[in-house]
């Protein structure tokens, strides 16, 4: 769900998995279908067409930050739980609560007082807005605190395994290490589940299972 143009779906299909992509945008679905090797359809993460207990895994990449109301996020997580088989895997992506602070430093957006106001709301509420549609300031979204993501996944009925920081702190120095991205990946793996550093990543990944 929230599969976009199918980058992850194509990779999983190439490994031999049976994959079906769902995205809210028709253009994304059209691009995904052009990639071939898997099915794709327009849909809503809050109301999936799949039958109960019919899937081995659900990748929820996008809905948790595009759904700004908690009730909608819990509904999407509940749908993921419904369609999973007992013991099935959930991988749920989120944007970190602190992402705009770090991005504002990296790109000097914080030199603009208006962006500082955006960041203050992000930190206080997790509700990210770009009222003047400034380039690079992202769109309307919800930014999760790592503990908040863990809480929502658990409250939806999942058995949480872990919340990971996806990029690690290396994303802040990406330009300096552009010729050695493998190093950034290694650093990310070293600290991906260190509680004190999970929030240094721009994106979070909750891994959880449906009770067997």
Mind sketching the topology for me?
Blueprint: H1 7-14, E1 20-23, H2 26-35, E2 39-42, E3 55-60, H3 63-66, H4 70-83, E4 84-96, H5 99-106, H6 113-125, E5 127-128, E6 141-144, H7 146-155, E7 159-165, H8 181-191, E8 203-209
Whole-number total of structural domains: 1
N-to-C series of helices and strands? HEHEEHHEHHEEHEHE
Structural category: alpha/beta
Which runs of at least 5 residues are low in confidence (pLDDT < 50)? none
The termini sit apart by: 22 Å
Give the averaged pLDDT, no decimals.
95
Largest sheet: 6 strands, mixed
User: Which CATH architecture would you pick?
Assistant: 3-Layer(aba) Sandwich
The first-level CATH class is given as: Alpha Beta
From the 3D structure, determine the CATH topology: Rossmann fold
What's the CATH H-level superfamily name? Answer: Vaccinia Virus protein VP39
Name the beta content range. 15-25%
Tally the beta strands.
Answer: 8
* Mass-distribution shape: globular
**Count of helical regions:** 8
Rg of Cα set: 18 Å
Can you walk through the features of this model?
This protein has one domain: Vaccinia Virus protein VP39 (Rossmann fold, 3-Layer(aba) Sandwich). The chain is 37% helix and 22% strand. The protein has 8 helices and 8 strands; from the N terminus they run H-E-H-E-E-H-H-E-H-H-E-E-H-E-H-E. It has helices at 7-14, 26-35, 63-66, 70-83, 99-106, 113-125, 146-155, 181-191, and strands spanning 20-23, 39-42, 55-60, 84-96, 127-128, 141-144, 159-165, 203-209. Strands 3, 4, 5, 6, 7 and 8 form a 6-stranded mixed sheet that branches. A two-stranded parallel ribbon has the order 1-2. The radius of gyration is 18 Å and the shape is globular. The model has no long low-confidence stretch (mean pLDDT 95).
């Amino acid at each position: 769900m929230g599969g976009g143009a199918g980058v992850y779906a194509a990779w999983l299909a190439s490994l031999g998995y049976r994959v079906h992509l769902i995205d809210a945008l028709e253009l994304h679905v059209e691009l995904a279908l052009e990639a071939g090797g898997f099915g794709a359809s327009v849909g809503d993460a809050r109301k999936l067409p799949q039958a109960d207990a019919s899937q081995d895994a659900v990748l929820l990449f996008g809905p948790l930050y595009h759904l700004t109301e908690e009730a909608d996020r819990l509904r999407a997580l509940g749908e993921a739980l419904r369609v999973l088989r007992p013991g099935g895997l959930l991988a749920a992506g989120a944007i970190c609560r602190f992402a705009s602070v770090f991005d504002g430093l990296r790109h000097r957006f914080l030199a603009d007082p208006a962006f500082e106001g955006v960041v203050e709301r992000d930190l206080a509420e997790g509700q990210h807005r770009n009222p003047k549609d400034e380039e690079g300031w992202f769109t309307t979204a919800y930014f999760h605190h790592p503990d908040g993501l863990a809480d929502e996944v658990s409250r939806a009925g999942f058995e949480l395994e872990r919340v990971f920081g996806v990029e690690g702190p290396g994303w802040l120095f990406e330009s300096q290490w552009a010729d050695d991205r493998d190093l950034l990946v290694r650093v990310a793996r070293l600290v991906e589940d260190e509680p004190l550093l999970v929030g240094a990543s721009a994106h979070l990944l909750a891994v959880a299972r449906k009770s067997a």
